[in-house]
Each structure stands twice: as structure tokens, then as C-alpha cells.
Amino acid sequence: MPTVIKIIHRLEDSVLVAMVLAMIGLAISQIWLRNFHDSGISWADNALRVMVLWLAMIGAMIATRERNHIAIDVLKIYASKRGKRVLAMLASASTAVICYIGAWYSGEFVLLEYEYSYAAFASVPAWLCEAIIPFGLAVIGWRFTLQFVMAMFWWDKLEVAQ
Fold first, then answer.
1. What are the Tripartite ATP-independent periplasmic transporters DctQ component domain coordinates in residue numbering (predicted)?
2. For 94-131, b where at least 16 C-beta lie within 10 A, e where not — what string?
3. Which helix (H) or strand (E) holds 48?
4. What is the pLDDT of residue 160?
């Protein structure tokens, strides 16, 4: 695997771990402040909601990268080797198209949020918090496109990877 791709994978993994640790730290701080000091961080709840969104999108990107995403294998059980290949190609292509459409429309949504410039929490613009949606969907779509190409041309190598 090329070094650039390894760096991207490590970056994704690092962001995911950092996000989980930050969420745990912020949630524990908020609980501690509320229960023992009758105070709290005013923006913490909204920040945690945004972090859950980012965590979900980055987790989905990693799951797609590792081919550990949710899949319905009812037809795959009964299909021949050629049928499995066709099903894999169909599933990857249709999922990629859906992700690209979702990325397009969520990108338009983020642009509208940018124009109206609402704050999500602590003066952080909402569009910045929501930008992970089109980015994540585009990355997931790209990975499904690569899986389609792998199923089309390098099926034997793809079978080994599963």
C-alpha cells in the first residue's frame, strides 16, 4: 500500500481516537461540574452532539475502508461465484451513486448554512460542524467506487481480502 494512503488511514484512525477521548473528557467534565459544583460548560452539550456526528461519519468512512460496513447477504448465500461478483458490483455501484447524491445535496445544505452563518456552539459556525457530512459521504462513495472496480477487474484479490 502506498505511503500516502497509509498516512491517510492513520490520520482517520487518529482523528477517531482523539474524538472519542475528547468526548469522554468533555462529558465527564460536564457531569462533574453539574453534580459537584452546580455549574457546567454552556456549550458542552451542543459540542457533544456535533462530536457524535463527526464520530459517526469518520467511523463510517473507516468501516467502508475496512469493508466492515453493514451488508445484507441474503442473496449472496445462494449465489454462484459469478453471481456473487455481479451482486458485489451492483451493491458497490448503487451505494456509490447514493453516497455521491447525498454528498451533493448535503454540500448544498452546508453552503446554505455558510450563507446564513449560524453558530452551533461557542461561536463555532454551524456549517463547519456540518461539513463532515458531504466530505464523509464523498469519501464513502469513492471507496465504494474502488470496491466496484476491484469487483470488476480483480475479483480473486477481493475475495481474499474478505
1. 23-149
2. ebbeebbebbeebbeebeebeeeeeebbeeeebbebbb
3. helix 44-65
4. 42
Three cell numbers, residue 158? 477481493
Q: Is 38 helix (H, G, I), strand (E, B) or coil?
A: coil
What are the pLDDT digits (tens) for 132-155?
A: 999 999 999 999 999 999 888 876
pTM (2 decimals)? Answer: 0.85
Q: Decide: 50 and 121 in contact? Cβ < 8 Å.
A: yes
pLDDT (tens digit per residue) in 61-70: 999 998 888 7
From the list 155, 124, 133, the residue with the least C-alpha distance to 48 is 124
